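chain below, 168 aa
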Amino acid sequence: MITPAWCRMMAAYNAEMNRRLYAAADTLTEAQRREDRGAFFGSIQATLSHILWGDTVWMGRFAGWDVPKVGIPDSGGLHGDWTKLMADRATTDARIEAWAAAFDPSWLDGTLGWYSGAMQRDVSRPRTVLVTHFFNHQTHHRGQAHALVTSFGAKTGDTDLPFILPFD
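prediction:
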């Protein structure tokens, strides 16, 4: 099942894929990054903003981080400045990696409860399921952003977890 080692691996994968995706997106024009291409959040920038929003919301639940004051509908517009979005992404990835490296394995046991603004009710789920969702959410929307970035001809390099992280 989910272990601290798995969390560390996924945090490293998340950070590396974000580095690759943001580097590719940075080769595009601002107009290309902001163009509504029909993805769930429309543009590359809005999709990447939503991912960062989601990461911050989940880390607020997991580790007490400050959370954005907007909900899902406004998450795509939360980070309007590309340079700041890139910097915030790098900082957030480093914090996620530090969290994954330091948490007590027993933290994964049990459940986590919170009020869900999206569901408009209190929710409680096993932490292992929530951590899995956290990493899957990133991958899901990053895949959308990857498709948008590559549709403009930008390249991210390999995206396959077994081939981009060092395994000894």
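The chain has one domain: 4-156. Strands lie at 111-116, 121-126.
thats it, cya
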